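Long-time lurker. I teach an intro course on protein structure, and each term I like to show students one example going from raw sequence to a predicted 3D structure in token notation. This year I'd like something fresh instead of my usual example. Would anyone be willing to generate the tokens for the chain below so I can use it in lecture? Attribution to the forum is fine with me.
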Amino acid sequence: MVNIQPHRPVLLILAAFSRYPEALDWARQTAEDAWGPISLASERFDHRETDYYEASMGTDLVKTFFAFETPLDPADLAECKETSNRWELDYQQLGRHPESRPLNLDPGYLTEAKLVLATAKDRDHRVYLRNGIYAEVTLHFQRGAWQARPWTYPDYQRPDYHAFFLRCREYLRQRAS
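-- Reply from a regular --
Happy to contribute to a lecture. Here you go:
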């Protein structure tokens, strides 16, 4: 019999995107209030790889990432997604923008080996967590670099995203030592 070990804490990541800088600022403050200090924040990247969100979010979308100081138990990922879904609704109900979805929030976590994202959409490569929430290994770390999977979203294949996730990985490694 294998001796079962608890998973080491992981680095909680939140992707936030919108066409409104004030929505991203609101997301950052709301997430910090709930999940604690942000240890790393990315620049704001143009979200140009798809027009999938245009009907509900508008054009000229910008995406940013936040990595949180407080370690996360990976078993809590579904709860993080449920929380971020509520925040999206909270922001939408403020009525500040005409779009039906002025803010999109996607939590996930990073380990030394992978980036996992939470989603409410089922696909063949996703694992069910609970309450309609699934997990996907979006990137894996191999031969010193982040590598995409066949299903990896096009924006998550960008070198500038990978550079930020490499910083997150180094931060996580330093914390573990």
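Some talking points for your students: The radius of gyration is 16 Å. The chain has four helices and nine strands.
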